[in-house]
């Protein structure tokens, strides 16, 4: 097959059907529906010298994923049904590859599944739905194996909320991004909510607090200066809607909640930091009226 096939170099218009990248790899067959690929990154049982590994695409999981992605794109057209797309992504997630993805992040596959993780073959990336305070899907955060993050065009920013949400018996623990949210779930916390960035999601988090009415919100900020500043801004907004707000950060030298977990951090460690954090409350100062004459 490799001796007689007419191999062509992949490009941005026709990326590799195996790794999804636009360079180094080769493909044979019609454009858009190749019959075989030599991937420079993904191994198979057949090595083709220095070019890479041979993958027969017909009747293989790679080609079926690519065809499914195309059918989703055509069916949804310009006005994408994001709820249906989330379900398509979740069905496309292979359990074995999801397990490997979770291990690479230092997380459990169970916590990622609580966040509705899926697989977008169209983008060759793992997908995390972003939702409103009621759980309706607004858009998607995508993450490739190399850590590159982006979003599905046409969607909106939202929160990362686990399927087993919190209730009034639990505080809301706010962190940044889906993997930090999964890390807090792996530590055993409930009522976790991930914001899309260190500055995003304030309006949605206010709505979430108004819906759940927790007694306390704990903001687990990233350890850098933007993360601390964003947490302070969010705390200022939330004190008008919740009795108590605390802001904490990982120990010095630890970037965020996920690296805290990877460094051996436990729920007890986080709770110890929470107990030491000052409570922030809304302060209403009375104005004295003097010298008024009718």
Cα gyration radius (Å) = 24 Å
Please write the CATH class name of the domain at 94-115 and 160-276: Alpha Beta
Q: Hey, roughly how much beta strand do the residues contain? A: 15-25%
* Structure classification: alpha+beta
Largest sheet: 5 strands, antiparallel
Tally of individual helices: 9
At CATH level 3, the topology of the domain at 94-115 and 160-276 is Dna Topoisomerase Vi A Subunit, Chain: A, domain 2
Named at the architecture level, the CATH assignment of the domain at 94-115 and 160-276 is: 3-Layer(aba) Sandwich
Number of strands: 13
* Whole-number mean pLDDT: 85
Query: Tell me, what's the shape?
Result: elongated
Helix content: 25-40%
Summarize the structure.
The chain is an alpha+beta fold and 294 residues long.
Overall description:
A hairpin with a 5-residue loop joins strand 8 and strand 9 (about 150). The model is unreliable at about 60-80 (pLDDT under 50). The chain is elongated. Helix content is about 30%, strand content about 20%. Among the domains are: about 10-60, no CATH class; about 95-115 and about 160-275, Dna Topoisomerase Vi A Subunit, Chain: A, domain 2. It has about 290 residues and is α+β, with helices and mostly antiparallel strands. The strands form three sheets. A five-stranded antiparallel β-sheet has the order 1-2-3-5-4, with no helix packed on it. Strands 6-7-8-9 form a four-stranded antiparallel β-sheet, covered by helices on one side. Strands 11-10-12-13 form a four-stranded parallel β-sheet, with helices on both faces. It contains nine helices and 13 strands.
